[in-house]
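Q: What changes when 3-phenylpyruvic acid is included in the input?
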Amino acid sequence: MLDHEQVVIRVGRRSGLPVIVAVHSTALGPAAGGLRLWHYPDWRDALTDALRLAAGMTRKMAVAGLPSGGGKTVVALPEGTRLGLDRRHAVLRDVADVIASLDGAYATGPDVGTGPADMAVIGETTPHVFCRPAELGGSGDSSPHTALGALAAVRAVGRHLYGTPALGGRRLAVIGLGRVGEHLARLLAAEGAELTVTDTDPGRRATADALGAAWRGPEEILAEEVDIVVPAALGSLLTEESVPRLRCRAVAGPANDQLATAAIAELMQRQNIVWVPDFVVGAGGVVHAVSAELHRAGPEEARARVLAVERTVGDLLAAAERDGVTPAAAAEETARRRLDAAGHGIRPKPVHAPQPEVTVR
Ligand code: PPY
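A: The predicted holo structure follows.
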């Protein structure tokens, strides 16, 4: 059964590429979620990704306590294509048209393959876009905030496992040195953590050297004996094959969609490895953007809300332990409770019409 409120697939009239917008839920408020511009063997793979990522955004918002819903946009680039400037502009205009047609039910933002400059282009067509550059009135790049929230999450895991959030001397393996991963590795290094890092791009090794981090291949790093593995790269790296190879106490990172299947969360629990759901760890970027742009929070307030990820993760780990469930199940339960309280699953909420007053007796 389709679990989403709406899914739009439209071939862009300028680019000829399929633009997929999945709006999973507006039960808590208008949906938000980034634009992923990435390579896929087939557009159907991009659709699968969009559906999963949009549902992940609903959970991300709900657990972070934001009055927003979840959605995502994916544009499937055929493998091997590189977008020139003109073609990129055409794609962004095509995306903007679809978003404009949703009339506020969904606003986009940055994701893998896009950043503030792309959001500026979309902003020429529709106001429903986050993270435009500051000079255009947006909140700018979200990746440093995602990284800060992930640091807060790792500190919470440290407190849970070792009784202290201090990361000095803690052995951490960071997988992926992209925009978020690199910021995060810097923050962790500044806290005195002992870092091992990897990226599929060997050119990133210079970054590792500059941080004083050890470098491993992407396959090797999973079996590294460390305290916490921190995924910040694309791909569902936690699988039936990879989990038995892990030699860590916990996995907590901001990458979306880390589990190959939902059952992997229990497999990790059986191996005595704490897995903190990605949609909790990676909430910092969207928390910052929504706080700054929708709720008009100042920089201090927005930062405080990002750092609150530490408390959220701490509470989640405590609740999971208390109830004898995985942190994933505890997070799902929190999300479900908040969505139910908003009327999710009771009756569909009209997106465009004003909400009637409902009194529950
Ligand atoms: C995500 O958190 O996965 C995102 O999609 C990033 C994002 C950031 C800001 C606004 C909307 C989405």
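Observations recorded in class: The chain has two domains: 6-61+68-132, 143-282+314-325.
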